[in-house]
Amino acid sequence: MADRYEKSEAGADAPVVPSLRWEELPEGPVLVLLDQTRLPSEEVELVCTDVPALVQAIRTLAVRGAPLLGIAGAYGVALAASRGFDVADAADTLAHARPTAVNLEYGVRRAAGAYRDAVEGGADRDGAAAAALAEARAVHAEDAEASSRMAAHGLALLGELVPGGGHRILTHCNTGALVSGGEGTALAVALAAHRAGELRRLWVDETRPLLQGARLTAYEAARTGMPYTVLADGAAGSLFAAGEVDAVLIGADRITADGSVANKVGSYPLAVLARYHHVPFVVVAPTSTVDLDTAEGALIEVEQRPGHEVTEIAVPFVPGAGTEAGTGVPVAPLGALAYNPAFDVTPAELVTAIVTENGVVSPVTPGGLAELCSTSRWGKSRSGNGMMAE
Fold this sequence. Notes:
The protein is of the alpha/beta class. It has helices at 51-59, 66-82, 87-95, 102-120, 125-161, 186-195, 212-224, 236-241, 267-276, 308-311, 366-374; strands spanning 2-9, 20-25, 28-34, 42-48, 167-171, 199-205, 228-231, 247-250, 254-256, 261-264, 281-284, 290-291, 312-313, 329-330, 343-346, 353-356, 359-361, 387-388. The strands form 4 sheets. Strands 7-6-5-8-11-16-17-18 form an 8-stranded mixed beta sheet, with helices on both faces. It has a 4-stranded antiparallel beta sheet with strand order 1-4-3-2, covered by helices on one side. Helix 2 (66-82) runs antiparallel to helix 3 (87-95), helix 2 packs parallel to helix 4 and helix 4 (102-120) runs antiparallel to helix 5 (125-161).
């Protein structure tokens, strides 16, 4: 169950609240989440004492973003193990909480595997639970390191694609510290550019229908001092036409073996616009987001979300508003049907480069992507496959 909230006012001078943390309380361990549905007006921590509460938080997007979902899934397995619940059942429930983001299943599988190995090795319940928790913490730490490495690789790539600095970067959805164990994926690259004095403007798509750009990316940009401007998703075309975009940076929820990229709906139109206007379209994601077992983008299961997210707007400052039909302010006639896919899929031929913690693949090819994912460290760039390295 989720049994309490801790509230603080959000603002540029307020202390940073971590997106997720494990806490040992006298009554037992809990997983504490920053409720992203309440941002930017309030920083509210949601305390999960069991897996059903965590699954609810995942499905309502209180916790979201591919890398963070992997971390949350791993900690969810540890929570079930530590509290004596059925770990196999918990792992299965968590892994299927959202179908598109491959990281969720990845994190669950790692922690569940550590638990199972400990049990098979003769560990008691506490020992097996400790193994699951250690694995969850490893997933968390690895993601933080990956974030830092992606930022460095991405900044170097920007310098090659857009020489001279003064980058004007367009981004979609939210890809910063709110979705990561570190500073994020695509937004971490933009932040690195800002710290290097090379970011002229961060263009922030509002990202309808749940406004993860306007609410969350703008929140992070304001906190870090990045120069940013929010725009309606439909305004991106005019921005390209005016020559105001130097590069598009987005994250990913799943990248298939052929290099197709599933990301927040609205990403594919940006890729088409970028290609037409000869602007680099760059995807930044850890290798845990690459799904080599899925051959092509057409095979990705795209999550379909409730129609009321489109036909209603959640009332600000009201807990639970927008979580069910009828709890928000109607913006369409009663009974209007809505098409609401959570993601769309961008084919590899529209992607200029994919940035991972291991390096960059460009052009994006199945062989280059597979080789990048099979190698943890690179000594130098390799000719012929378009890959850059540390």
